[in-house]
Amino acid sequence: MGCYANAGELYNQCRHGRILWNRVGNIGKNYQRIHCNRKLWIYQCGFDEFQDAIGDYSGSKTPNTPDYTFSIDGQYRPKNGFYAGVDMVGYGRMYLDSVNTYSRDAYQLVNAKVGYEADKWDMYLYGKNIFDEGYTMTGIGNGFFLIYSTLREMGLKFTYRF
């Protein structure tokens, strides 16, 4: 069981942006659609003043807030129903305690999907965390904790729409 205290003064700033690009039309002899999306969030969060019975955390970053997050994705859909897509999501370093002793390093995950879509059904091969990126983290912050990374997942899915 942990002990929690309210921080004296915090600063919290977030900057973000998004770029979306779509290409629809004839490429060669086929009607095709290409989609690309990019997002970036940068976080600046920390303690201006924060003291409790254990210590002074002034100037430290707030725990459990990554320095940044981003996502990039792209999708290709020709007219014939087949499609392919890939995306990458990333997370910056994140401190796990108020003292900023324990942290999780930055990491990125890549996911992919290839399939066929008809009017009422969809079937695709997919992969999540396809490079099997490990980001398991351990630390002591209001108690000991261990957070496991998501393992690589590959599969085949079928969806039917009524």
Give me the secondary-structure topology:
Layout: E1 9-27, E2 30-49, E3 68-78, E4 82-91, E5 94-95, E6 103-104, E7 107-117, E8 121-128, E9 137-140, E10 144-147, E11 153-160
Antiparallel strand pairs: 1-2, 2-3, 3-4, 4-7, 5-6, 7-8, 8-11, 9-10
Concise account of the structure shown:
With 162 residues, this protein is an all-beta fold. It is built from no helices and eleven strands.
What shape does the CA trace take?
elongated
Spell the H/E element sequence: EEEEEEEEEEE
Total of DSSP H or I helical runs spanning 4+ residues: 0
Helical percentage: under 10%
Q: Strands across the major sheet, in which order?
A: 1-2-3-4-7-8-11
What do the pLDDT scores average to? 85
Total beta strands = 11
Structural class: mainly beta
Query: What count of domains describes the coordinates?
Result: 1
Largest sheet, strands/sense/barrel:
7 strands, antiparallel
Determine the oligomeric state from the structure. Answer: single chain
N-end to C-end Cα span:
49 Å
Strand content: over 45%
Please mark out the parts with pLDDT under 50 across 5 or more consecutive residues, or reply none. Answer: none
Return Rg in Å.
Answer: 22 Å
What report would you give on this structure?
- The protein has 162 residues and is mainly beta.
- It has one domain (9-160).
- 0% of the residues lie in helices and 61% in strands.
- The protein is built from no helices and 11 strands.
- It has strands at 9-27, 30-49, 68-78, 82-91, 94-95, 103-104, 107-117, 121-128, 137-140, 144-147, 153-160.
- The strands form 3 sheets. The protein has a 7-stranded antiparallel β-sheet, with no helix packed on it. It has a two-stranded antiparallel sheet with strand order 5-6.
- A hairpin with a 3-residue loop joins strand 7 and strand 8.
